[in-house]
User: Fold these one by one.
Assistant:
Number 1:
Amino acid sequence: MRTQVGIIGAGPAGLLLSHLLHLRGISSVVLEKRSREYVERRVRAGVLEQGTVDTLVEAGVGERMSREGLPHHGIELRYGGAGHRIPFEKLVPGRAITVYGQQEVVKDLIAARLAAGGDVRFEVEDVAVHSLESEPYVTFGGERLDCDVIAGCDGFHGVSRPSVPEGVLSVFEREYPFAWLGILARVAPSSEELIYARTERGFALHSMRSPTVSRFYLQVPADARLEDWPDERIWAELKERLETVPGFELATGEITERGITPMRAFVTEPMQYGHLYLAGDAAHIVPPTGAKGLNLAVADVRVLTEALAAYFRDGSAELLDGYSEACLKRVWRAQHFSWWMTTLLHTFEEDDPYARRLQLSYLDYVTSSEAAATTLAENYVGLP
Ligand code: FAD
Ligand code: DHB
């Protein structure tokens, strides 16, 4: 079997790449180890930058997102007994974010690929990439797929990145001493906008998916286990951390999904080797506080699509050669922003009273200085 681009992984990166390549007349095969049901149900990100929304709309897969996505023009930072709004419409006019679940993006992309006769294979076993320096190919479940190029879109735990010979890639990483416990609940959001709450008990985030479904996250210890967090404890802790301003009451409901995500940062440089190009979480991870992971994956795929289009159109490898460099600038900006938001809002056990005062002082600065708030806003809605 032969295709132009062999794509490993049917997350947002792999599916969008396959779709954008199809629009340019470039063939691809997507190989995913999980089932279609599994990837369509995997609850993760929810915040789409304007650039991500524009990409999906331009690619013709934004119809349901435009109908069901929730545009947001600000977020609230809540700490010290008060809420402080960061108004995007004032600080970054014309730019906003859209709240729309990652698994909805994945569903829309899978539907588009299948409607166009795309080759997306689920539950494939033993995917391995070979001969990355020349004439690359992929093996899976006893089959062989020859391709011109392999796109490693298989996330942080995938097989693509570990296939690069040792010593080629430099890795930069940081593990945070806490995790996020995330839930989805059948209850109307208690706030119109996202609330990022900093308390002495730890961070909490109130997000949403629709007028009847809310999404919440709690900072928990890195070794926290779901079995130690029954529903009552989750709601009690969310109330402790969110009901900190006068008159705010958190509505509760049935919890329909729960999970614990470790917090880590990771970058590999370069994001390519031979005919293998890494995109999305396969190449970099950010702590979720800045809501950047999915948006970075989309940004990588935009760059890779242009580079592959030039390569297959007139054989020019110039853009492909510069792929990694073109992506890493944005990647590192997002790394810094995610680290900054994480540091601003979480409690660190090693922090002494002095460090806590510094954190509160910085929060006061961000919420009172227009220049500082603009820094937050322009990074949050996404750099052009
Ligand atoms: P993935 O979505 O991980 O997709 C990789 C795919 O490859 C998967 O389907 C996997 O099954 C498959 N795969 C893995 N190994 C193999 C193999 N060996 N063979 C075949 N297939 C394989 N980002 C944001 O932008 N905004 C947010 O608000 C946000 N919130 C988040 C909240 C949480 C709780 C989490 C966990 C993440 C969040 N993120 C957020 C990050 C975002 O979800 C990821 O950055 C995004 O999923 C990256 O997409 P991807 O396609 O690169 O990787
Ligand atoms: C969501 C996730 C995030 O990481 C974030 O910063 C904001 C919202 C969400 O899943 O809704």
Number 2:
Amino acid sequence: MALIVHKYGGTSMGSVERIKNVARRVAKWHAAGHQIVVVPSAMSGETNRLIGLAKEIQEQPDPRELDMIASTGEQVSVGLLAMALKSLGLDARSYTGWQVPVRTDASYTKARIASIDDTRIRGDLDQGRVVIVAGFQGIDDDNNITTLGRGGSDTSAVAVAAALKASECLIYTDVDGVYTTDPRVVPEARRLRVVSFEEMLEMASLGSKILQIRSVEFAGKYRVPTRVLSSLTDPLMPLDEEMQSGTLITFEEDEKMESAVVSGIAFSRDEAKVTVLAVPDKPGIAYSILGPIAAANIDVDVIVQNQSVAGTTDFSFTVHRNEFQKTIDVLNRDVVTQVGAREVVADPKVAKVSIVGIGMRSHVGVASLMFKTLSEEGINIQMISTSEIKTSVIMDDKYMELAVRALHKAFGLDQTQA
Ligand code: ADP
Ligand code: ASP
Ligand code: MG
């Protein structure tokens, strides 16, 4: 008997029929003698609908109240799933985040999980119940409801699995695993049988929406065996077959994985670029520009400082597109005059495309093949950023999909074996 956490995303919970299928699948695992905790998302479209309502009332919704609203989608899901399980004759109990409780910090709309009390969950499991915990939400030290950021149910599930020392966390979604890139953009993308934790971490942080980055961080920190698999298969498929399906995130790198130089391509349209023009080139300049940005709690991504000409230089960086206006406001208020720069110019329509692979550590020429491929497509690279296992480039966002398809082909990702 094992304790296993299942997570079902929005599409998987998207209709009454799908919820009934989730219940059938969970019942199958329970009947095989396992203790099951389920972490569902809101039904697909529901979180968007709730946020939309909030924005109709307040253009920039109050964060505390936004979390109050956005968290309700998952409350509906857990109740419906508990009922579906009961109709199949199982004993099930649903909980919201605050009932567990899932404790978080107080950063509304992007809270971090601090701790999870397992007392009630364990009590129910010991009595043979299936436990259903609402994803995406928690409660801060002052008992305010918080949410974990878009896609946050992944993180809820892996954190619950870590707290319970579950033997596996199964992330059921609308694709049958982690692919070489988003199959919606590149139909030739292939499923990876395994992906290393480090690669998954890079892919998630570089924009692959298949897993929320913090869920991958939790999986790594607590060594939670995590598998991404499809919820759209026959819920009664044989258990041993299901246990082998999808993509496993591994913490060990085997030789086979080394053979693929690039394992995946990630992309993100959530980028915006700002440039401070004609900044006096002297020590401390990066700090005087980025200090006020950090103080305003804005995350900076790629940074480039140009060669100085006649004592001045241009300083560019990217931020999340949501924080574009805020960034410009901070620069105009706290930086331009103070550092003696000429002005701020900005481009909110840039995208980041990244190639990721642990094989990049031991191979040369990977980045140059990337640049060659993009140049053959006539795509101008605006900024470059590299680490040991990834190379990212910033480009005009209208070329993003073309770039992803060309790179997918150039690196042979439609052919190599995982
Ligand atoms: P869920 O609602 O189950 O959490 P998401 O929509 O958050 O599902 O994530 C699944 C989607 O992620 C897929 O439908 C797919 O379009 C997208 N995706 C992006 N990158 C990848 C990738 N590398 N492999 C698989 N799916 C990906
Ligand atoms: N329902 C939330 C969202 O749409 C959380 C999730 O689906 O993981 O972002
Ligand atoms: Mg998701």
